[in-house]
Write a structure and sequence with these properties.
single chain, 4-stranded parallel sheet, transmembrane helix, alpha/beta, PAP2/HPO, 2 domains, 10% strand, transmembrane
Protein backbone atom coordinates (compact mmCIF):
# COMPACT_ATOMS: atom_id res chain seq x y z
CA UNK A 1 0.00 0.00 0.00
CA UNK A 2 1.31 3.45 -0.92
CA UNK A 3 1.25 5.72 2.10
CA UNK A 4 1.56 9.43 2.61
CA UNK A 5 4.94 8.74 4.24
CA UNK A 6 6.30 7.14 1.08
CA UNK A 7 5.23 9.93 -1.22
CA UNK A 8 6.63 12.45 1.23
CA UNK A 9 9.90 10.53 1.14
CA UNK A 10 9.97 10.66 -2.67
CA UNK A 11 9.33 14.38 -2.61
CA UNK A 12 12.13 14.92 -0.11
CA UNK A 13 14.58 12.85 -2.18
CA UNK A 14 13.74 14.84 -5.31
CA UNK A 15 14.05 18.18 -3.54
CA UNK A 16 17.36 17.16 -1.95
CA UNK A 17 18.71 16.14 -5.37
CA UNK A 18 17.70 19.47 -6.89
CA UNK A 19 19.19 21.34 -3.94
CA UNK A 20 22.47 19.43 -4.29
CA UNK A 21 22.59 20.29 -8.01
CA UNK A 22 21.95 23.95 -7.33
CA UNK A 23 24.55 23.99 -4.57
CA UNK A 24 27.10 22.48 -6.96
CA UNK A 25 26.35 25.10 -9.59
CA UNK A 26 26.48 27.93 -7.03
CA UNK A 27 29.77 26.71 -5.59
CA UNK A 28 31.34 26.30 -9.01
CA UNK A 29 30.15 29.73 -10.10
CA UNK A 30 31.78 31.28 -7.01
CA UNK A 31 35.08 29.38 -7.13
CA UNK A 32 35.71 29.33 -10.87
CA UNK A 33 38.71 31.38 -11.98
CA UNK A 34 38.45 34.63 -13.86
CA UNK A 35 37.63 33.97 -17.49
CA UNK A 36 39.64 35.28 -20.40
CA UNK A 37 37.89 37.66 -22.81
CA UNK A 38 36.02 36.11 -25.73
CA UNK A 39 35.54 37.60 -29.19
CA UNK A 40 32.16 37.49 -30.95
CA UNK A 41 32.15 39.67 -34.06
CA UNK A 42 30.41 40.31 -37.38
CA UNK A 43 33.45 41.97 -38.95
CA UNK A 44 37.15 41.37 -39.54
CA UNK A 45 39.14 40.87 -36.34
CA UNK A 46 42.82 40.60 -35.46
CA UNK A 47 44.34 39.02 -32.37
CA UNK A 48 47.76 40.57 -31.75
CA UNK A 49 50.78 38.54 -30.68
CA UNK A 50 50.61 39.78 -27.08
CA UNK A 51 46.89 39.01 -26.64
CA UNK A 52 45.43 36.00 -24.82
CA UNK A 53 41.84 35.21 -25.82
CA UNK A 54 39.36 32.63 -24.56
CA UNK A 55 37.37 31.72 -27.67
CA UNK A 56 36.71 33.37 -31.01
CA UNK A 57 33.52 33.33 -33.08
CA UNK A 58 33.38 35.48 -36.20
CA UNK A 59 30.38 35.56 -38.53
CA UNK A 60 30.61 37.32 -41.89
CA UNK A 61 34.22 38.45 -41.42
CA UNK A 62 37.82 37.29 -41.53
CA UNK A 63 39.99 36.44 -38.52
CA UNK A 64 43.75 36.86 -38.17
CA UNK A 65 45.19 35.21 -35.07
CA UNK A 66 48.69 36.10 -33.94
CA UNK A 67 48.35 35.57 -30.18
CA UNK A 68 47.16 32.78 -27.92
CA UNK A 69 43.65 31.30 -27.97
CA UNK A 70 42.94 28.97 -25.06
CA UNK A 71 39.57 27.77 -26.38
CA UNK A 72 38.02 27.12 -29.80
CA UNK A 73 37.95 29.22 -32.97
CA UNK A 74 34.87 29.32 -35.20
CA UNK A 75 34.69 31.41 -38.37
CA UNK A 76 31.45 31.45 -40.36
CA UNK A 77 31.42 32.81 -43.94
CA UNK A 78 34.94 34.14 -43.66
CA UNK A 79 38.61 33.16 -43.80
CA UNK A 80 41.02 32.34 -40.97
CA UNK A 81 44.75 33.09 -40.92
CA UNK A 82 46.86 31.64 -38.09
CA UNK A 83 50.19 33.46 -37.95
CA UNK A 84 53.51 31.88 -37.06
CA UNK A 85 53.57 33.17 -33.47
CA UNK A 86 50.00 32.02 -32.72
CA UNK A 87 49.02 29.25 -30.36
CA UNK A 88 45.52 27.72 -30.42
CA UNK A 89 44.62 25.08 -27.84
CA UNK A 90 41.01 24.35 -28.83
CA UNK A 91 39.24 23.13 -31.94
CA UNK A 92 39.26 25.15 -35.16
CA UNK A 93 36.19 25.22 -37.42
CA UNK A 94 35.78 27.32 -40.59
CA UNK A 95 32.32 27.09 -42.15
CA UNK A 96 32.14 28.74 -45.55
CA UNK A 97 35.75 29.90 -45.90
CA UNK A 98 39.39 28.85 -45.81
CA UNK A 99 42.03 28.31 -43.12
CA UNK A 100 45.70 29.23 -43.56
CA UNK A 101 48.27 28.08 -41.00
CA UNK A 102 51.69 29.74 -41.28
CA UNK A 103 54.84 27.74 -40.46
CA UNK A 104 55.68 27.92 -36.76
CA UNK A 105 52.09 28.24 -35.52
CA UNK A 106 51.15 25.91 -32.64
CA UNK A 107 47.81 24.21 -33.31
CA UNK A 108 46.61 21.31 -31.16
CA UNK A 109 43.78 20.22 -33.47
CA UNK A 110 43.56 19.96 -37.22
CA UNK A 111 41.12 22.57 -38.63
CA UNK A 112 37.77 21.42 -39.94
CA UNK A 113 36.97 23.47 -43.06
CA UNK A 114 33.91 23.60 -45.33
CA UNK A 115 34.28 25.51 -48.62
CA UNK A 116 32.76 29.01 -49.10
CA UNK A 117 29.01 29.44 -49.34
CA UNK A 118 29.19 30.12 -53.05
CA UNK A 119 30.65 26.68 -53.65
CA UNK A 120 27.98 24.43 -55.24
CA UNK A 121 28.69 21.53 -52.87
CA UNK A 122 28.09 23.48 -49.67
CA UNK A 123 24.25 23.65 -49.89
CA UNK A 124 24.24 19.93 -50.66
CA UNK A 125 26.43 19.15 -47.64
CA UNK A 126 24.35 21.32 -45.31
CA UNK A 127 21.09 19.88 -46.68
CA UNK A 128 22.40 16.35 -46.24
CA UNK A 129 23.36 17.06 -42.62
CA UNK A 130 19.95 18.55 -41.84
CA UNK A 131 18.10 15.71 -43.58
CA UNK A 132 20.23 13.18 -41.70
CA UNK A 133 19.31 14.88 -38.43
CA UNK A 134 15.60 14.86 -39.31
CA UNK A 135 15.73 11.18 -40.28
CA UNK A 136 17.47 10.30 -37.02
CA UNK A 137 14.56 11.87 -35.11
CA UNK A 138 12.13 9.61 -36.96
CA UNK A 139 14.19 6.46 -36.52
CA UNK A 140 13.23 5.86 -32.88
CA UNK A 141 9.40 5.97 -33.31
CA UNK A 142 9.72 3.86 -36.47
CA UNK A 143 11.96 1.42 -34.62
CA UNK A 144 9.40 1.12 -31.80
CA UNK A 145 6.67 0.47 -34.35
CA UNK A 146 8.76 -2.14 -36.20
CA UNK A 147 9.78 -3.99 -33.02
CA UNK A 148 6.17 -3.94 -31.76
CA UNK A 149 4.92 -5.26 -35.09
CA UNK A 150 7.40 -8.14 -34.96
CA UNK A 151 6.63 -8.92 -31.33
CA UNK A 152 2.91 -9.27 -32.02
CA UNK A 153 3.69 -12.12 -34.41
CA UNK A 154 5.67 -14.14 -31.88
CA UNK A 155 4.26 -16.97 -29.75
CA UNK A 156 5.26 -15.31 -26.47
CA UNK A 157 3.52 -11.96 -27.10
CA UNK A 158 0.15 -12.90 -25.58
CA UNK A 159 1.64 -14.63 -22.47
CA UNK A 160 3.98 -11.69 -21.88
CA UNK A 161 1.10 -9.24 -22.25
CA UNK A 162 -0.98 -11.16 -19.72
CA UNK A 163 1.93 -11.20 -17.26
CA UNK A 164 2.38 -7.42 -17.56
CA UNK A 165 -1.34 -6.87 -17.03
CA UNK A 166 -1.22 -9.07 -13.94
CA UNK A 167 1.74 -7.11 -12.59
CA UNK A 168 -0.08 -3.83 -13.24
CA UNK A 169 -3.08 -5.04 -11.24
CA UNK A 170 -1.13 -6.62 -8.37
CA UNK A 171 1.81 -4.21 -8.01
CA UNK A 172 0.84 -0.84 -9.54
CA UNK A 173 3.58 0.78 -7.48
CA UNK A 174 6.11 -0.60 -9.99
CA UNK A 175 4.81 1.77 -12.65
CA UNK A 176 5.22 4.68 -10.25
CA UNK A 177 8.74 3.50 -9.44
CA UNK A 178 9.61 3.39 -13.15
CA UNK A 179 8.40 6.98 -13.58
CA UNK A 180 10.51 8.11 -10.63
CA UNK A 181 13.50 6.21 -12.00
CA UNK A 182 13.14 7.99 -15.36
CA UNK A 183 12.88 11.30 -13.50
CA UNK A 184 16.12 10.54 -11.62
CA UNK A 185 17.91 9.61 -14.88
CA UNK A 186 16.85 12.88 -16.50
CA UNK A 187 18.04 14.80 -13.44
CA UNK A 188 21.45 13.14 -13.76
CA UNK A 189 21.52 13.92 -17.49
CA UNK A 190 20.74 17.58 -16.81
CA UNK A 191 23.44 17.74 -14.12
CA UNK A 192 26.05 16.25 -16.45
CA UNK A 193 25.06 18.59 -19.28
CA UNK A 194 25.19 21.63 -17.00
CA UNK A 195 28.64 20.65 -15.81
CA UNK A 196 30.01 20.04 -19.30
CA UNK A 197 28.42 23.17 -20.77
CA UNK A 198 28.97 25.85 -18.16
CA UNK A 199 31.96 24.70 -16.14
CA UNK A 200 34.00 22.43 -18.41
CA UNK A 201 33.21 24.40 -21.62
CA UNK A 202 33.22 21.21 -23.71
CA UNK A 203 29.99 21.97 -25.61
CA UNK A 204 31.26 25.07 -27.44
CA UNK A 205 32.02 23.31 -30.71
CA UNK A 206 28.68 21.48 -30.59
CA UNK A 207 26.81 24.73 -29.99
CA UNK A 208 28.57 26.84 -32.60
CA UNK A 209 28.40 24.24 -35.37
CA UNK A 210 24.68 23.60 -34.94
CA UNK A 211 23.90 27.32 -34.82
CA UNK A 212 25.58 27.72 -38.20
CA UNK A 213 23.76 24.73 -39.68
CA UNK A 214 20.35 25.96 -38.56
CA UNK A 215 21.05 29.48 -39.83
CA UNK A 216 22.56 28.53 -43.19
CA UNK A 217 19.31 28.79 -45.17
CA UNK A 218 17.95 31.72 -43.16
CA UNK A 219 15.54 34.05 -44.96
CA UNK A 220 12.63 36.34 -43.98
CA UNK A 221 9.97 33.72 -44.79
CA UNK A 222 11.69 31.07 -42.70
CA UNK A 223 12.11 33.65 -39.91
CA UNK A 224 8.33 34.11 -39.75
CA UNK A 225 7.72 30.34 -39.72
CA UNK A 226 10.18 29.83 -36.87
CA UNK A 227 8.61 32.67 -34.87
CA UNK A 228 5.21 30.95 -35.20
CA UNK A 229 6.65 27.61 -34.10
CA UNK A 230 8.38 29.29 -31.16
CA UNK A 231 5.07 30.86 -30.15
CA UNK A 232 3.57 27.37 -29.84
CA UNK A 233 6.29 26.57 -27.32
CA UNK A 234 5.71 29.42 -24.92
CA UNK A 235 3.70 32.26 -26.37
CA UNK A 236 0.14 33.29 -27.14
CA UNK A 237 -0.67 30.04 -28.95
CA UNK A 238 0.77 28.06 -26.06
CA UNK A 239 -1.35 29.95 -23.52
CA UNK A 240 -4.52 29.38 -25.59
CA UNK A 241 -3.86 25.63 -25.78
CA UNK A 242 -3.16 25.46 -22.04
CA UNK A 243 -6.45 27.23 -21.28
CA UNK A 244 -8.37 24.92 -23.62
CA UNK A 245 -6.78 21.89 -21.95
CA UNK A 246 -7.74 23.14 -18.49
CA UNK A 247 -11.32 23.85 -19.58
CA UNK A 248 -11.66 20.45 -21.25
CA UNK A 249 -10.38 18.57 -18.19
CA UNK A 250 -12.69 20.64 -15.99
CA UNK A 251 -15.67 19.85 -18.24
CA UNK A 252 -14.83 16.13 -18.09
CA UNK A 253 -14.36 16.40 -14.29
CA UNK A 254 -10.95 14.74 -14.44
CA UNK A 255 -9.76 16.59 -11.36
CA UNK A 256 -6.64 14.59 -10.62
CA UNK A 257 -5.37 14.96 -14.18
CA UNK A 258 -6.18 18.66 -14.04
CA UNK A 259 -4.23 19.00 -10.79
CA UNK A 260 -1.25 17.05 -12.16
CA UNK A 261 -1.17 19.21 -15.30
CA UNK A 262 -1.37 22.38 -13.23
CA UNK A 263 1.48 21.25 -10.95
CA UNK A 264 3.52 20.20 -13.99
CA UNK A 265 3.23 23.56 -15.76
CA UNK A 266 3.56 25.69 -12.64
CA UNK A 267 6.56 23.71 -11.44
CA UNK A 268 8.20 23.87 -14.88
CA UNK A 269 7.87 27.66 -14.97
CA UNK A 270 9.29 28.00 -11.44
CA UNK A 271 12.10 25.54 -12.17
CA UNK A 272 13.01 27.33 -15.39
CA UNK A 273 13.18 30.70 -13.61
CA UNK A 274 15.24 29.24 -10.77
CA UNK A 275 17.75 27.44 -13.01
CA UNK A 276 18.20 30.39 -15.37
CA UNK A 277 19.02 32.72 -12.50
CA UNK A 278 21.24 30.11 -10.88
CA UNK A 279 23.49 29.48 -13.89
CA UNK A 280 23.13 32.98 -15.46
CA UNK A 281 24.39 32.01 -18.91
CA UNK A 282 24.17 34.95 -21.35
CA UNK A 283 22.20 34.39 -24.52
CA UNK A 284 23.97 34.14 -27.90
CA UNK A 285 24.82 37.53 -29.35
CA UNK A 286 25.02 36.49 -33.03
CA UNK A 287 22.24 35.83 -35.55
CA UNK A 288 19.65 37.33 -33.20
CA UNK A 289 16.18 37.49 -34.84
CA UNK A 290 14.02 38.14 -31.75
CA UNK A 291 14.89 39.73 -28.42
CA UNK A 292 14.80 38.05 -25.01
CA UNK A 293 15.69 39.54 -21.64
CA UNK A 294 16.16 36.46 -19.40
CA UNK A 295 19.16 34.16 -19.18
CA UNK A 296 19.82 31.36 -21.64
CA UNK A 297 20.42 28.08 -19.75
CA UNK A 298 18.24 26.03 -19.81
CA UNK A 299 15.71 26.83 -22.53
CA UNK A 300 12.35 27.70 -20.98
CA UNK A 301 10.55 26.99 -24.25
CA UNK A 302 12.07 23.51 -24.48
CA UNK A 303 11.20 22.77 -20.85
CA UNK A 304 7.64 24.12 -21.12
CA UNK A 305 6.93 22.25 -24.37
CA UNK A 306 8.30 19.00 -22.95
CA UNK A 307 6.14 19.34 -19.83
CA UNK A 308 2.90 20.48 -21.50
CA UNK A 309 2.92 18.35 -24.65
CA UNK A 310 4.49 15.43 -22.77
CA UNK A 311 1.75 15.47 -20.12
CA UNK A 312 -1.02 15.94 -22.70
CA UNK A 313 0.40 13.05 -24.74
CA UNK A 314 0.44 10.85 -21.63
CA UNK A 315 -3.19 11.70 -20.81
CA UNK A 316 -4.25 10.94 -24.39
CA UNK A 317 -2.22 7.73 -24.72
CA UNK A 318 -3.82 6.12 -21.68
CA UNK A 319 -7.26 6.51 -23.31
CA UNK A 320 -6.22 5.03 -26.67
CA UNK A 321 -6.47 1.20 -26.83
CA UNK A 322 -4.35 0.78 -29.97
CA UNK A 323 -0.58 0.82 -29.50
CA UNK A 324 -0.28 2.32 -33.00
CA UNK A 325 -2.46 5.21 -31.87
CA UNK A 326 -0.37 5.69 -28.74
CA UNK A 327 2.82 5.61 -30.79
CA UNK A 328 1.38 8.23 -33.16
CA UNK A 329 0.51 10.54 -30.29
CA UNK A 330 3.97 10.11 -28.76
CA UNK A 331 5.67 10.77 -32.11
CA UNK A 332 3.67 13.95 -32.69
CA UNK A 333 4.48 15.23 -29.19
CA UNK A 334 8.20 14.55 -29.64
CA UNK A 335 8.26 16.09 -33.13
CA UNK A 336 6.49 19.23 -31.89
CA UNK A 337 8.87 19.63 -28.95
CA UNK A 338 11.90 19.15 -31.21
CA UNK A 339 10.55 21.69 -33.72
CA UNK A 340 10.12 24.24 -30.93
CA UNK A 341 13.68 23.67 -29.75
CA UNK A 342 15.04 24.07 -33.29
CA UNK A 343 13.09 27.31 -33.70
CA UNK A 344 14.76 28.76 -30.59
CA UNK A 345 18.21 27.92 -31.96
CA UNK A 346 17.33 29.32 -35.39
CA UNK A 347 16.03 32.57 -33.90
CA UNK A 348 19.38 33.06 -32.17
CA UNK A 349 18.11 33.17 -28.58
CA UNK A 350 19.47 29.80 -27.41
CA UNK A 351 22.48 27.57 -27.84
CA UNK A 352 21.72 23.94 -28.73
CA UNK A 353 23.00 22.86 -25.31
CA UNK A 354 20.39 25.17 -23.72
CA UNK A 355 17.65 23.34 -25.60
CA UNK A 356 18.98 19.87 -24.75
CA UNK A 357 19.21 20.90 -21.10
CA UNK A 358 15.62 22.16 -21.26
CA UNK A 359 14.50 18.80 -22.61
CA UNK A 360 16.37 16.96 -19.83
CA UNK A 361 14.96 19.16 -17.06
CA UNK A 362 11.45 19.06 -18.58
CA UNK A 363 11.56 15.27 -18.93
CA UNK A 364 12.64 14.98 -15.30
CA UNK A 365 9.76 17.10 -14.08
CA UNK A 366 7.04 15.61 -16.29
CA UNK A 367 8.09 12.08 -15.28
CA UNK A 368 7.82 13.09 -11.63
CA UNK A 369 4.37 14.64 -12.18
CA UNK A 370 3.19 11.49 -13.98
CA UNK A 371 4.31 9.38 -11.02
CA UNK A 372 2.48 11.79 -8.70
CA UNK A 373 -0.72 11.42 -10.75
CA UNK A 374 -0.43 7.64 -10.71
CA UNK A 375 -0.01 7.70 -6.93
CA UNK A 376 -3.15 9.84 -6.54
CA UNK A 377 -5.15 7.44 -8.67
CA UNK A 378 -3.86 4.36 -6.84
CA UNK A 379 -4.59 5.97 -3.49
CA UNK A 380 -8.17 6.66 -4.62
CA UNK A 381 -8.64 3.01 -5.69
CA UNK A 382 -7.40 1.76 -2.32
CA UNK A 383 -9.66 4.13 -0.42
CA UNK A 384 -12.65 3.01 -2.47
Amino acid sequence: MITQTRIARWLIITLVSLTALMGLGFSASINKPEELPDIFAHHDITVETDQIIGKIMVAGGNAVVGGKVTDSVLVVDGNLVIQQAAKINGHIVVLGGSATIEPGAAVNHRPWVIAPKGHPLVPLIVSALLILGAISLLVFPALFWFVGHLCKKTSWYIPAKNILLAIEQRWPILYIAVSLFISALMLLAFSALAWETLFQKTMVLFDDSFVWLFRYFANPTLDKIMIRISDIGFGTSYIIMVIISFLLLTYLKRWRELGALMICLTGAAALSFLLKNLFQRPRPDVFRVVQEVSYSFPSGHAMASMCFYGMIAFLMMRTIPSWRGRLTVMTLAVALSVAIGISRIYLGVHYPSDVVAGYAAGSMWVAFCISLLMWWEQDRKENE
